[in-house]
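Let us practice reading a record.
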Amino acid sequence: MILVPGGRGQLGHDLAALSADVHAASSAELDVTAVTADDVRGYSAVINCAAYTAVDAAETDEDRAFAVNAVGPGLLARACATAGTPLIHVSTDYVFPGDGTRPYEPTDDVGPKSAYGRTKLEGERRVLEEGGWVVRTSWVYGANGSNFVKTMAALESSRPSVSVVDDQRGAPTWSHDLAAGLLELAAVLPSTRLLHAAGGGETTWFGLAQAVFEELGADPARVTPCTTADFPRPAPRPAYSVLSGAAWVAAGLRPLPHWRSALTAAFRAGVVAPRA
């Protein structure tokens, strides 16, 4: 049985849907900021999906973000090390500065620009220090909870047009595909401890929004491009955060599907509820 802290989010939801051997624990059931070895003992692995993901709110609430994204994973890693239970911790593309021009490798220099990124990076450090595995991913969407894909689908039905940022580039990742990859990783547990797992290829938020409209049978020309400067946010976003899956494949793991084919599969699977 695999324990999944933060198991009620979109990734935890898909992990539980993919395997009957997953115990998806809510934050009320298992608080990673107060976890002990007894909480994780006896499990075949722990996949940590618990995170403070309110990127903009973290700019003024960094202490809370640090508790969940750094202190919690550190305590969980120590508990797992004590209990002899492998830990896989999910992290983010936000640990990179976002000024790259080619897909980031796990060994590339980090340099987060946001409070969220800083807290996630510290969580990585603490997990790796205790012998756990860290998997960075990006632009995750799924059927459970709110996300960009579902937001664009809702806007398609309520607005004649929508403006979307076209100067931020990354790799959209269907949570179902990521969950499958994490379960494979838990079964293999390769010697490489820091890995990237994200959808193949790359696009911008504008490109992803157009693809969502296409999946809905709507005219993608109703999506118009804009710049990050047009919609300023409290937390800076990486301009480029494509993650390379080369180390993932080298570790003997199957690459995640290309983001565009994954989006089609996600719509067929009902990631967005059919129109009434």
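A brief commentary: Residues 56 and 234 are 5 Å apart (CA to CA).
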